[in-house]
Amino acid sequence: MPEEKEACWEYLKSQIDIIQPKIILLCGNVAVQSILGNIGGITKIRGKWFEGGEIVHGAKLMPIFHPSYLLRNDSREKGSPKWLMWQDIKEIKRVYETL
Fold first, then answer.
1. Is 54 helix (H, G, I), strand (E, B) or coil?
2. Structural domains in the chain?
3. Is it the case that residue 89 has pLDDT exceeding 90?
């Protein structure tokens, strides 16, 4: 809910300011819309890197599926949500190792 996002925003911003992460994973549509705005659905933008602005200290941002979505989709076959998530995790690890 918008009210919930509003209530938590300052706390989240403070955490980002303190930690200054190099990579932030945006888990699901709510996280994506909160940080990047309405740029498209999670199934189309997941697994792609976005450059964060000043608000996240230039962190690399990657939208990924929300964990609850993965729990509801049990298949691990090629092209399934869990398989796609594994591809995303491998890409995240690749970039992390270059930092």
1. helix
2. 2-98 (3.40.470.10)
3. yes
